[in-house]
From TrEMBL:
Its cofactor is Mg(2+). SUPFAM superfamilies: Terpenoid synthases. Keywords: Magnesium, Metal-binding, Transferase. GO terms for molecular function: metal ion binding; prenyltransferase activity. This is Polyprenyl synthetase family protein. It comes from the Bacteria. It comes from Agromyces agglutinans. PANTHER family: GERANYLGERANYL PYROPHOSPHATE SYNTHASE, SHORT CHAIN ISOPRENYL DIPHOSPHATE SYNTHASE.
């Protein structure tokens, strides 16, 4: 069965083989493109591979063919690897949008290009060069994710299944981009929205920027490759969406309270970036007017110091917002696992998806 380390190895090898082929094209054009080669490999060398795992188990849930030879897994492993490239592209662009300095305890892509510019003593503005180059790296990874998906789908005998998987992938891209736009909109337009709408608007961002793309879409893509019936797809979506929401709610908590040594991001990074998350929406509902005004005033200040971050953390925690978010995570996790109970899927996939559900909802990074 291609789970655990075997699945991760298969996906990593597929990514490496694909990058070797594509970066050879870059090297044939100019040696000056070496940073695109190096940085693309760097951003695809690690991570938890949750999206790849959900894609595979969506396939296994329908096919029940976990014992298949590696060659027979080529379409779904390629799709899983394509999701990892898409995710890397999204992270590169997201870090530019959020002006983030780090990603996984290392410099973000635009900071790497910025450093390259400064170290090379080139003319012009180093930060501007870093942002422009990182945008192109993200675009390159995005295009490559399409190519990698298509290579896998071309090997799929069932053309109807291939088309269904491609449709799921295209819908995911649209939803993620829409969710990302709504995210940056909320950071800037929240003052013009009624307080009563903040929670609903934050949940919409969670749903489209993260929940569907992190869990539901990978499951649906894998299931489609296996030729899923409408009933099977419905059951997997009923599991994937609430789990995806729990996944992002956990991210919201970690973005404020996570240990930098574990998350690879500075403590309170979401506070400096001014993220209008569900955690913040709930805190605003619970805080008295004076404390709510202070939160609104300092949230989004990129120069927040350690003491200010700690003060905001205490304010959010003491008002009960964290406890409420934890309760929401537990409720969405319960809803997701309940959807698996009578789902028409393989027993092996059901057990593995339950384990994955607990892993993503209770993770520390």
């Amino acid at each position: 069965m291609a789970h655990g380390s075997r699945l991760v190895d298969l996906v990593q090898h597929r990514i490496e083989d694909f990058l070797t082929d594509r970066t050879a094209i870059l090297r044939s054009i100019s040696p000056d493109l070496a940073p695109l080669d190096a940085f693309s490999k760097r951003f695809l060398s690690g991570g938890k591979r949750f999206r790849a795992r959900f894609c595979y188990w969506g396939w296994e849930a329908v096919s029940g063919r976990g014992g298949s030879a590696d060659a027979d897994l080529f379409p779904v492993v390629s799709a899983a690897a394509a999701l990892e490239l898409f995710h890397a592209a999204a992270l590169v662009h997201d870090d530019i949008i959020d002006n983030s300095d780090t990603r996984r305890s290392a410099p973000s892509a635009h900071r790497l290009f910025e450093r390259l510019h400064a170290d090379s003593d080139w003319s012009g503005d180093a930060p501007e060069y870093g942002r422009a180059a990182a945008i192109l790296l993200g675009d390159l990874l995005l295009g490559w994710s399409d190519e990698l998906l298509d290579e896998g789908l071309e090997a799929l005998p069932d053309r109807r299944a291939a088309r269904a998987a491609r449709i799921e992938f295209m819908r995911m891209r649209t939803e993620v981009t829409a969710g990302q736009y709504l995210d940056i909109l909320e950071e800037r337009a929240w003052r013009t929205r009624p307080d009563s709408e903040h929670r609903e608007r934050a949940e919409r961002v969670i749903t489209y920027k993260a929940a569907k793309y992190s869990v539901e879409a990978p499951l649906a893509i894998g299931a489609a490759i296996a030729g899923a019936s409408p009933t099977q797809l419905h059951a997997l979506r009923a599991f994937g969406l609430p789990l995806g929401i729990a996944y992002q709610l956990r991210d919201d908590v970690l973005g404020v309270f996570g240990d930098p040594e574990v998350t690879g991001k500075p403590a309170g990074d979401d506070l400096r970036e001014g993220k209008r998350t569900m955690l913040i929406a709930i805190a605003r509902e619970r805080l008295p007017a004076g404390q709510r005004s202070i939160l609104d005033e300092v949230l989004g200040d990129p120069d927040l110091g350690r003491d200010q971050v700690r003060m905001l953390q205490q304010t959010i925690e003491r008002c009960g917002a964290v406890d409420e978010v934890e309760a929401l995570i537990a409720a969405h996790l319960e809803k997701a696992t309940a959807a698996l109970a009578d789902a028409p899927i393989s027993a092996g996939a059901r057990a593995e998806l339950e384990d994955l559900a607990n892993a993503v909802a209770r993770r520390a990074s």
